[in-house]
Amino acid sequence: MRIGCTLTGGWKLTAAHPRFESAVNKVLRLILHAQSKAEMALCYRVLRLKFPIQQFPNYAWYQNKRTYSEKVTSKPKPVSSVETTDHLIYTHEHNALRESLRKIIDKEINPFIDKWEEAELFPAHRIFKILGSSGFLGVNKPTEYGGLGLDFSYNVAVAEELGNIRCGGIPMAIGVQSDMATPALARYGSAELKKEFLQPTIAGDKVVCLGVSEVGAGSDVASIKTKAVRKGDDYIINGGKMWITNGTQADWMCLLANTSDGPPHRNKSLICLPMNLPGQKHIYGVIALNFIGLVWFC
């Protein structure tokens, strides 16, 4: 593949395969809109690393007989709530999804951030129901359980847009609901489990939390001590979880527990645990588990 620039500032491209030509053209359009030498250098590096280029000009790019510099234009760029220029991944559909989410953020979340910060609590059920009704809690989840069935690039677009929320806790809570506590259930869970737990979670009718971290085991997941021991048709669960986002408002927990005495990397299971079962206590941020009951495995 050969890429060169003409004296009039146009681009001449010959590619070995049409998909390379399309991809490179996207990068070239980004180069032509670059506002600094750093941006141009980054685009140049992407081309050199990702595509088998045989000949490539130095990145002192020329367009309309003019060299790009740090001062490309003195005119301010128009401000838009969502980026609408060409993107390597995002399409008009991605931008439309982001625009829809931005409206919810501006109307239902950001005006109340200070109030919720003062109360040290946000209305998770109300906010999640609003997001679930618009499809934002199941962007890449199966359509038969209320998801949108889109690919993961749309999750990335949604995650970027959540960055416009004027705090860190609420985006994290939303991320736990949509991308941390439910992926395993969506992929490996039975139809019965998905109907009881996944579907209402995607719809925003139920709030979920992820029960992994413990007092003595955070990132070191292999060291968790919570155990689930089978007794007849029930399981006896003993242990505790700490630093659980959504924990105080959750309807169910995706709980990680040791279910056998095997090696620590092979003796664990994820359990769909309703949070209204007797034997659970919330003490200074610790969820203490000590009960006998019927539990559900992912």
Strand order within the widest beta sheet: 5-8-9-12
Q: What shape does the CA trace take? A: globular
Q: Given the helix and strand composition, which structural class is it?
A: alpha+beta
Query: What percentage of amino acids are in beta strands?
Result: 15-25%
Rg measurement, Å: 25 Å
- Compute the average pLDDT: 78
Q: Can you tell me the residue ranges where pLDDT is under 50 for at least 5 consecutive residues? A: 1-17, 52-79, 291-298
Task: Say how many strands there are.
Answer: 12
| Helical residues, percent | 25-40%
Sheet with the most strands? 4 strands, mixed
Q: How many helices in DSSP terms? A: 9
Rounded to the nearest angstrom, the distance between the terminal CA atoms is 49 Å
Order of helices and strands: EEHHEEHHHHHHHEEEEEEEE
Please describe the structure with a list of short key phrases separated by commas or semicolons.
298 residues, alpha+beta, four-stranded mixed sheet, four-stranded antiparallel sheet, 9 helices, globular
Compact description:
The protein is α+β, with helices and mostly antiparallel strands and 298 residues long. It has nine helices and twelve strands. The longest helix has 18 residues, at 92-109.
Question: What do these coordinates show?
Answer:
- Helix 1 packs antiparallel against helix 2.
- The chain is of the alpha+beta class and 298 residues long.
- 27% of the residues are buried.
- Helices cover 36% and strands 19% of the residues.
- The longest helix is centred in the middle third of the chain and has 18 residues, at 92-109.
